[in-house]
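User: quick one
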Amino acid sequence: MFSMHYTMNHRYWTMLIAVCRVREPSRPTSIHEDARSTENTMSLHLKPDQSKSIATLAPLAALVVFAGLATASWPSAAQDETYTPEFTADKQLKLPHGKIWREWPFVGSLVTPNSLNDGEAPFPEHHVVYIDPVSWAHYKKTGTFRDGTVLAKELTLVRAPDGANENGSTDEVSGTGYFMGEYSGFEITIKSKELYPDEPGNWAYYTFGHHLEPYSGTAAKQPAEACNACHEASAAEDFVFSQFYPVLRATKPK
Amino acid sequence: MFSMHYTMNHRYWTMLIAVCRVREPSRPTSIHEDARSTENTMSLHLKPDQSKSIATLAPLAALVVFAGLATASWPSAAQDETYTPEFTADKQLKLPHGKIWREWPFVGSLVTPNSLNDGEAPFPEHHVVYIDPVSWAHYKKTGTFRDGTVLAKELTLVRAPDGANENGSTDEVSGTGYFMGEYSGFEITIKSKELYPDEPGNWAYYTFGHHLEPYSGTAAKQPAEACNACHEASAAEDFVFSQFYPVLRATKPK
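Assistant: Done. Structure below.
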């Protein structure tokens, strides 16, 4: 297990093998499993490793390779894939930068069209749910949502460029149905004992608006009765609606 | 730009910086952009880099770090994310192993319910479209589908555990709409001048079945009139229905 630290500019690259952590022999059970795991990828910033499988922590060597001729950009997959929620001083959650959630593993989608909900769907209208990659890797191993899990839900309106049928569907070459229009909302939920000791299941919910982009830059935690209560009452698995998400059912270890 | 080659066993790790490729100074415009790019991630196997931005190709150094005490498993994100289609001797496409597509970037979803299509939706019923990560990185940079692009479409039935409304929708806590049931089909399309010089747009289409899992293990290329013709006639962008996929529209460089 390695963490490396790179410092680069246009004419130099400096590579420091800062820490080499040693753990008991273990092989990934699936190459996919580890593709998104921070445990085995490279990181621009050293960070504590939460793996319980670490047997020893041994700095091995500091290695500097200096090549004045080389120009390189070497980003880190792990940095991108390890999302850490950021908050304002008054505890508002900041909108994740770069819309990073759109590259997270897809959990599921559904559509509750306005036209089938008296013009006021609670979530207008397509929902797409994503999970942060580190928590996805954990879910695949354990079938549980780790402390720190982040789920993102983005909404889009139903596409109806030339008008829609009475039920809101449109007739496209793929058939009659509900197609995606423009982005129309964004929400996040986070599970954390430390941050939300008093929330049921330690899940907190944030809404960055149900409207076209741009979304709000920050969001206050919703009161438990606004979101959490419904998840607690109806979601099949630890406040998550896995009954709607085949990939969770298919992936959960048997 | 680097490619590295690792050889490992339980008691040793050997790191070879096999080739260090140099290119003109360029910084990623987005850290996400590069997170899934093979150009900037590590690969277990050296492979030709197709980037046209390479100015110079200069082997710099071969560096071996040998540490007998260390035990490491160091998988490669790039290896996992670089999907190479595999074919049988009679040119049938093999079903990708491990359902790897379910971790690829999400392109879009839509639903054409059987109930709104005389009981016989062309694609029953939810579609979810994914793109292979390397082609996604390319699309973000260029707004085009590179030669080699692979798109995967997986289907699920509409969920209706307690029966459905006449239009096929169900009433759930999130509202009335269409929710995902079980996986019900899988298809792939590949763009390749080399493999499909005579297909319009060099896109070929493969269907692994419209039925519950398990899917067929192999699939023959569909005749152009079965899939390609419709994509050619109606898809907004190089045979891809980007009019249905907001993430493509939002991501395409302006």
